[in-house]
Design a protein that fits this description.
globular; 75% helix
Length: 221
């Protein structure tokens, strides 16, 4: 019963943390109350802030969205350690970490504070994986950077990184580590769920990529 209560707390707290959408908050506070969802691509995320509001607000957005992913998983780890006496080798501990990651991503995408219209959760996903398994974080960010440099399309890089998430679970948890079967299945299921959500949020970008109309970035800017 205590396990269920703690997992419920993790899900609620992580969702609420994710709901603090940095791009919306930062632009409303520091850009005369403007709504980032009404300019540029209309997405409440780092890239749209960078393109339409400049570097300073974009850096603030990046820092907050990254920090909340870290905070959600860290809080989950603390709750499970002190309330349940669990450690990183436990399947329940693994479940709690990935539950925190998914709930935070869900809050970022469907924020209850801003009409359930949020961003696409790339930064938040990265940040959460950093605390769960730093190897996954490094692979995801590496894939993102390589695809971005080659294509100059942020959305394509994000989609490729999202598709890589479940693959990294298979490589590290199934092939290399040989983790407990229940733990690796939990991780894989959540990775597929999170990746599916992120890719779904990029569905309009996918259409523009296929049409050849997706915007590209220029690195000198």
């Amino acid at each position: 019963m205590l396990n269920i209560f703690v997992m419920l707390l993790i899900a609620i707290f992580s969702y609420l943390i994710g709901c603090v959408n940095a791009s919306i908050v930062v632009t409303k506070l520091f850009d005369s109350g403007s709504d980032i969802r009404e300019v540029g691509s209309g997405n409440a995320g780092f890239t749209n802030v960078l393109r339409t509001k400049g570097k300073k607000l974009a850096i603030c957005t990046f820092a907050i969205d990254f920090a909340k992913g870290v905070l959600a998983v860290y809080l989950a780890q603390i709750l499970m350690t002190f309330c349940l006496g669990l450690c990183g080798d436990s399947p329940i501990f693994c479940f709690g970490e990935y539950l925190a990651c998914f709930s935070c991503v869900l809050g970022h995408v469907y924020t209850c504070f801003f009409g359930f219209k949020g961003g696409k959760a790339i930064l938040t996903t990265w940040a959460a994986t950093l605390l769960i398994d730093w190897r996954i974080f490094l692979v995801l960010i590496s894939v993102f950077l390589v695809v971005l440099i080659l294509s100059k399309i942020v959305s394509l890089a994000s989609i490729c990184a999202a598709l890589t998430f479940p693959v990294t679970i298979v490589i590290f948890y199934f092939a290399i580590d040989g983790n407990d079967s229940s733990k690796r299945i939990i991780a894989l299921l959540f990775a597929v769920l999170i990746s599916t959500l992120v890719i779904y949020r990029h569905r309009k970008n996918i259409q523009r990529i296929l049409n050849g109309t997706e915007s590209k970035i220029t690195f000198h800017k």
